[in-house]
Design brief:
Radius of gyration of chain A: 18 Å
Number of helices of chain B: 10
Distance between the termini of chain B: 40 Å
Distance between the termini of chain A: 39 Å
Number of helices of chain A: 10
Number of domains of chain B: 2
Low-confidence stretches of chain A: none
Mean pLDDT of chain B: 86
Mean pLDDT of chain A: 93
CATH superfamily of the largest domain in chain B: Oxidoreductase, molybdopterin-binding domain
Shape of chain B: globular
Order of helices and strands of chain B: HHHHHEEHEEHEEHEEEEHEEH
Strand content of chain A: under 5%
Oligomer: heterodimer
Largest sheet of chain B: 7 strands, mixed
CATH architecture of the largest domain in chain B: Alpha-Beta Complex
Shape of chain A: globular
Order of helices and strands of chain A: HHHHHHHHHH
Strand content of chain B: 15-25%
Number of strands of chain A: 0
Number of strands of chain B: 12
């Protein structure tokens, strides 16, 4: 299949959760607390896209899906897209654009304190994801983009610190984070030897 | 604005014109009759009667609920529609998403139901719900419900004053507290079998005896004039309107008079986050979110409906004297 087609398919599929959310919003199927539903949904998909993006290089190496590498940037940008939707929904729908409350919440609530830098990292990585930026930053580009691991761990803390009555999600995400980081650590050690 | 929720008919549900006309007439009648009787529920009745299937219980209960004494106080808050009250619930025995209880609570068998009365009282034993309800007067009560998660609803309950029931068992002088326990049954409440739960089931709650005897404290068996749906804690749940919602324990199987402060589920789970008293208080924040304001549901997307939270959820005139001289920051 030509790369253009693959690109189109991956783009469309990645957009499906967003379109589904828009559909449910317009048809008023979000229940009593639509704001919370939207914030939760976009937050979950941010994490899923981080997982998907970070699964690309292991899949390229282990399953030899080399064609996938060309689409990693788009998957990463979708993580950023859902993260921006998540923050925007929180600001507009939950806080009613009350910025002073936003800052006081950020200081007071550890899970927001963890979430914000994660989003800032994703923004920085998104901005520097172009070919021109790659050329300009050279070796530093790789170093900068390793921050995605920090965003991953911060995202996981963001979930963990909101646990109320069940650890299920936090444990499941934790296992995935460990696997994604473990694969890289293993590869790094083998190369160092 | 397209976001605002309403009882509009969806495109895919084309209603035959005759049915539609009948329904309109019925709604107008309900509205008219309601306005005449000055019933507090009149304005909300058409909405919940049109689309959402209502819960039916045994006839004796439905009949008793229908005959409940009407609420005579003036209601200034707008009622939360029936469909939201019954589809947005925290009832972790059935799942952790707000929509889980409505989806999964069908496994609960609330009828027949028995309640054990135990502890420091002259009369104790196990009683059929029907017998217990024979001893009390059912009343409608419209209360604000403030969840510790900073959202709130306004719900027309049908129930009876807990004190009216408790007095009949003649608690002794050693009865300083009242402890409540929810049903423990993994078959009926599947999440009680979950390995990832942070709560040690069954769910337990408690009140000081003077709080339990306060006329605002009720045990509810219905809402919106109908039998209490499973997801709302059928067949019997506590409602303490000046405390955070988690105090209002659902599907109660045991009521015990105790001398010492009973262990309560959320307090055991995270004592720094959830106190025994759990009185609504805008000045005492939960460690993970502010309690200064709340979002009154249903909230529209561009009108988040944020309102200031009131001390004792606005019931201070009635209940503040219970806590005179107490440091509410320490006993949160």
């Amino acid at each position: 299949m030509p790369a253009v087609w693959r690109r189109l398919i991956i783009f469309s599929v990645s957009l499906v959760p967003f379109l589904w959310l828009v559909y449910r919003t317009v048809t008023q199927q979000l229940g009593a607390d639509p704001a919370k539903t939207i914030v939760l949904f976009t937050g979950e998909w941010t994490i899923y896209f981080l997982f998907i993006t970070l699964s690309v290089s292991p899949l390229v190496k282990l399953a030899r899906w080399r064609w996938l590498m060309t689409h990693r940037r788009m998957l990463g940008l979708f993580a950023l897209f859902y993260a921006l939707c998540h923050v925007a929904a929180y600001l507009v729908f939950i806080l009613g654009l009350d910025l002073s409350r936003f800052f006081s919440e950020m200081v007071k609530r550890p899970y927001i304190t963890a979430g914000m830098p994660a989003v800032l990292i994703l923004i920085a990585l998104g901005v520097t994801s172009t070919k021109g930026m790659m050329r300009r930053l050279r070796k530093n580009w790789v170093k900068l983009h390793r921050l995605v691991y920090a965003a991953l761990i911060l995202g996981w803390l963001h979930v963990l610190w909101q646990v109320r009555s069940s650890y299920f999600e936090a444990v499941l995400y934790g296992v995935i984070v460990l696997v994604l980081l473990g694969i890289r650590l293993y590869g790094y050690r083998r190369r160092a030897r | 604005m397209f976001i605002k929720s309403s009882a509009d008919i969806k495109e895919n549900e084309i209603t035959p014109e005759s049915v539609y006309r009948d329904r309109r007439r019925f709604m107008q009648m309900a509205l008219g009759a309601g306005a005449l009787a000055a019933s507090p529920l009149a304005s909300s009745k058409p909405g919940f009667m049109t689309e959402t299937p209502l819960t039916s219980g045994p006839d004796w209960l439905a009949k008793q609920i229908a005959q409940a004494e009407a609420y005579d106080k003036k209601i200034t808050d707008k009622l939360t529609p029936y469909e939201h009250v019954t589809s947005y619930n925290n009832f972790y025995e059935f799942g952790y998403d707000k929509s889980d209880p409505a989806k999964h609570a069908g496994s609960l068998q609330p009828h027949p139901w028995r309640v054990e009365i135990a502890g420091h009282a002259d009369k104790t034993g196990v009683f059929d719900l029907e017998d217990l309800l024979g001893k009390v007067t059912l009343r409608e009560r419209v209360y604000r419900l403030r969840c510790v998660e900073a959202w709130s609803m306004v719900i027309p309950w049908v129930g009876f004053e807990l004190g009216e029931l408790l007095k009949q068992f003649k608690p002794t002088s050693r009865a300083k507290y009242v402890a409540f326990t929810t049903l423990l049954d993994k078959k009926q409440m599947p999440e009680q079998g979950s390995r990832f739960s942070t709560i040690d089931w069954p769910y337990r709650e408690g009140l000081r005896i003077d709080e339990a005897m306060h006329p605002l404290t009720i045990l509810a068996v219905g809402l919106y004039g109908k039998v209490l749906p499973n997801q709302n804690g059928a067949p019997l749940r506590l409602v303490v309107p000046w405390k955070y919602g988690f105090k209002s324990i659902k599907s109660i199987v045991k009521i015990e008079f105790t001398e010492k402060e009973p262990a309560t589920s959320w307090n055991v789970r995270a004592p720094n986050e959830y106190g025994f008293y759990a009185n609504v208080n805008p000045k005492v924040d939960h460690p993970r979110w502010s309690q200064a304001s709340e979002r009154r549901l249903p909230s529209g997307l561009f009108s988040p409906n944020i309102i200031d939270t009131q001390l004792f959820n606005g019931y201070g005139d009635e209940v503040a004297q219970l806590y005179s001289g107490m440091d509410l920051k320490k006993y949160y």
